[in-house]
Amino acid sequence: MAPIALAFAVLDLTGSKTDLGLVLTANWVPQIILVLFGGVFADRLPRNLVMVGSNLVSGVGQATIALLLLTHHAELWQLIAIQVVRGSAMAFFFPASQGLVPETVRASLLQQANALLGMTKNGTVILGAALGGVLVATAGSGWALAFDGATYIASAAVLGAMHLPRADRIETPNVLCELAQGWHEFSSRTWLWVIVACAAVGNTVWMGASQVLGPLVAKEYLGGAASWGLILACQGVGLLVGGLLMLRFHPRRPLFVGMGFFTVAALPIVFLASLRSTPVIAFGYFVAGVSLEIFSVAWATALQEHVSLERLSRVSAYDALGSLVLVPIGLSLAGPVADAIGLTEALWLAAILGTSSTLIGLTVRDVRDLRRREVEPRVAEPALESVR
User: Fold this and answer.
1) Residue 92 near residue 98, CB atoms below 8 Å
2) Model confidence over 196-255: pLDDT tens digits?
3) Where residue 173 falls among pLDDT bands split at 50, 70, 90?
4) What are the structural domain ranges in the chain?
5) CA distance 208 to 210
6) Contact 82, 74 (CB under 8 A)
7) Prediction pTM value
8) pLDDT reading at 170 higher than 70
């Protein structure tokens, strides 16, 4: 519910797509600044407890925004400040979550685990996006964000109850040394940094076009929040279908297949620019969802198979930093660019840049040729031992 609720809260508050970009940017900037430190802490501490702390902060942040909206005291600067706090917390969540999977699942089951994890998450997107659109249209954004805050608290309770096997943790207090180790692990693999560089461009144009310009198209041409909620729900269905496919489909060259599917991810942006029909745009988001989840599962599994567990969170932090470093630029510039060259032209530009970055990634041999690691299941051994 949250992306829809926040987008229309800002649009209802100020009516400015530039202000919406600023609020979304405020969430991403601290993630970029702090994510490397999040990776270090996740490799040092129990990863589930790092995620608990992050979720508690995010839950309080969303509840505060909800209260401000429901009492009609919300101002733009308050939304920006709270998004900064939430972004800081999320910088610690992502690296810890990436390292948590191989701590709990045998190496031979990593892809299935990543697919199931994605399906669980994306299943809530289907219901949440559709319900969020209706709730925002009827009761307002405040109630949707209040519910979102409650889910963060519930998630913290579940994660806090986990009991992980004991694992080797970083003992040295030298943060710079730990970051250098993570950088060496990251930069020594061509396939890794190439994909991240492509993602930097793709994520930037996607976030600007979809999160800033998409709600604007919905507000001006499609009838508002309810239509946008339906569209995002269809993306959730696509993500779920992609996860189902990856439960059984085990490509020997996962990045080649994942990037190949991802070449159609810009289809909904094309439809936002041209056809502006809710069913057609919803279909485009469905296709994009399928391709995104196939790539995401393949990517996560490749990282977990080829990067050592004790450095996985730090490498994931560099992945997040590189992939997201330009996102604030895309969010903050989407509105001004659309004002300067036109909404349609800005959407076409985003579609072209996003597709080009994917095609460039496919030209790199290391991306095309990376193979799965064949791991024999060892049923009698603890999960942690099987990934060593």
Assistant:
1) no
2) 999 999 999 998 898 889 988 998 899 887 888 889 888 888 998 999 999 889 899 999
3) low
4) 2-165+174-371
5) 6
6) no
7) 0.77
8) no
336-351 b/e with 16+ CB inside 10 Å = b?
ebbeeeebeebbbbbb
Angle of the 17-44 helix axis to the 76-104 helix axis, nearest 10: 40
Residue 105: predicted pLDDT: 86
Buried b (16+ CB within 10 A) or exposed e, 74-99: beeeebbebbbbbbbbbbbbbbbbbb
Here the tokens at position 55 are: 């979720």
Letter for the amino acid at 207?
Answer: M
pLDDT in tens, 252-305: 999 999 999 999 999 999 999 998 899 999 999 999 999 999 999 999 999 989
The third-level CATH classification (topology) of the domain covering 2-165+174-371 is Growth Hormone; Chain: A; (1.20.1250)
Q: What residues contact 7, with CB distance under 8 A and at least 6 apart?
A: 20, 211, 215, 228
Amino acid at position 156, single letter: A
